[in-house]
Amino acid sequence: MIFAGRYGRPRHATPTAPPTDFELSLQTYKEMDLGPFTHHPSVMIYVVTNEMPYEGQAGNLYREFLTRMCGELKKWDDTRLYICNAGYGLGASGDIYDVHRYWGWYYNTFLTYLNMRDKSMWQNPGRVQPITFTECVGNYTGIDGRFNLCSRTKQPCILSKKLFSSFSTSFNNGLFKFSLEIL
Description:
alpha/beta; three-stranded parallel sheet; two-stranded parallel ribbon; 7 strands; globular
């Protein structure tokens, strides 16, 4: 058990707003959501929320709440790292830049993970944070065993010249070599 905590909306919150009683929420995290795990030797990371709004007014409210909550919780237990908005928060409020990526399921193809090499896509300005994937899938195959190469579908795409004039990619880091070409 690496992660422990509240994998959902904070208690006393709504889908569009964090709890209004900060002290009650802090007490709830300490006593109910995180507290029971403090003595477990395998817990390395606390999760404060999961997939809360991150854009617009609701996103701003949650970011402010979670940033403040992270600061207060670190005073209570500074021996662990915090993911404050798993998946959608992108590390803005906590110690870790966490994402939920279902490459080849919701996003592009299974090769999209190669974007990890571009650190500017995965860090907040002025910060260096570890990256975690608390939810991720490399890819699924369709009923015929082919990998999904089309975005936003859970089934393989029939690639033809009508859809693509050509597609090719390769990867070679000295340990692994991969090449794909579809004409």
